[in-house]
Amino acid sequence: MLGRSSVIARNFSQSMVRFSGHGGVPGENLPFSIQNKYRVTALFTIGCVLGFGSPFLIVRHQLLKK
């Protein structure tokens, strides 16, 4: 019973990938454009700096609060 349901699920997932129309072009499914490499670099840098630095800034703010 379990084996048959996994085969059905696998066939369904393969057919959805095959007929979905997405794929083949790098960056086609991203929510932003990757045509301008300088903009992508700037957004990536800003995202990494904010994502990595914000916990440290929050802790610093909490420690300096009176």
TrEMBL record:
It is found in: Mitochondrion inner membrane. One of its GO terms (biological process) is mitochondrial electron transport, cytochrome c to oxygen. Belongs to the cytochrome c oxidase VIIc family. The lineage of its organism: Eukaryota, Metazoa, Ecdysozoa, Arthropoda, Hexapoda. CDD domains: Cyt_c_Oxidase_VIIc (cd00929). Keywords: Membrane, Mitochondrion, Mitochondrion inner membrane, Transit peptide, Transmembrane, Transmembrane helix. It is a single-pass membrane protein. Its main location: mitochondrion. Gene3D superfamilies: Cytochrome c oxidase subunit VIIc (4.10.49.10). The keyword tRNA-binding does not apply. GO terms for cellular component: mitochondrial inner membrane; respiratory chain complex IV. The keyword Transmembrane applies. The chain crosses the membrane at residues 40-59. Pathway: Energy metabolism; oxidative phosphorylation. The gene is Dwil\GK21957. SUPFAM superfamilies: Mitochondrial cytochrome c oxidase subunit VIIc (aka VIIIa). This is Cytochrome c oxidase subunit 7C, mitochondrial.
